[in-house]
Write a structure and sequence with these properties.
95% of the residues lie in helices and 0% in strands. The chain is rod-shaped and about 175 Å long. The protein has one domain. By secondary structure, it is an all-alpha fold.
């Protein structure tokens, strides 16, 4: 064999060996190494996520109270600024509503009292008065009859006991 053929044979053998090594490495990587790496990567990602959440939660808790204080202060300032204007507007609105509805309210109250007095005067008062007159009259008649009977108290007690 000539030296050129030996050189080509060496190169082909080297390339074939390299390709076989590469193919064998790819198979080993796909079958054994990749699943282990993915499992490990998943565990690392979960750990990182837990640490980030814990750190973010702690940072959020640290910032929450100052944020609440700032919001509370801002709301109080806004309320202090707006409260007099709101009070004035509410008072003006109530006055306007009262002035608009006061005549109608007065008229309704007058009508109500007039109806109540009229209904009481015609039915209830007459019924009560008639009852009192009848009771008073019967009481007077009974008293008059007992005076006319002129019996002795001892005789009256004997008559009532049986």
């Amino acid at each position: 064999m000539s030296s050129g053929q030996v050189l080509v044979l060496i190169i082909v053998t080297a390339l074939t060996s390299s390709l076989c090594t590469l193919a064998l490495g790819l198979v080993v990587f796909q079958r054994w190494l990749r699943p282990r790496l993915e499992t490990r990567l998943t565990m690392i990602a979960e750990t990182l996520e837990a640490r980030v959440r814990a750190g973010a939660g702690a940072a959020g808790q640290e910032l929450l109270e100052p944020l609440r204080a700032q919001v509370r202060g801002g709301v109080e300032e806004a309320a202090i600024e707006l409260l007099p204007r709101i009070r004035a507007e509410l008072a003006a609105g109530f006055r306007e509503a009262a002035e608009e509805s006061l005549p109608a309210f007065r008229e309704e109250v007058r009508k109500g009292f007039a109806e109540a007095i009229a209904s009481l005067a015609t039915t209830e008062i007459l019924g009560r008065t008639a009852g009192k007159v009848v009771r008073t009259g019967s009481s007077l008649v009974e008293t008059g009859l007992s005076l006319l009977r002129a019996t002795r108290p001892s005789a009256r007690d004997d008559d009532e006991s049986p």
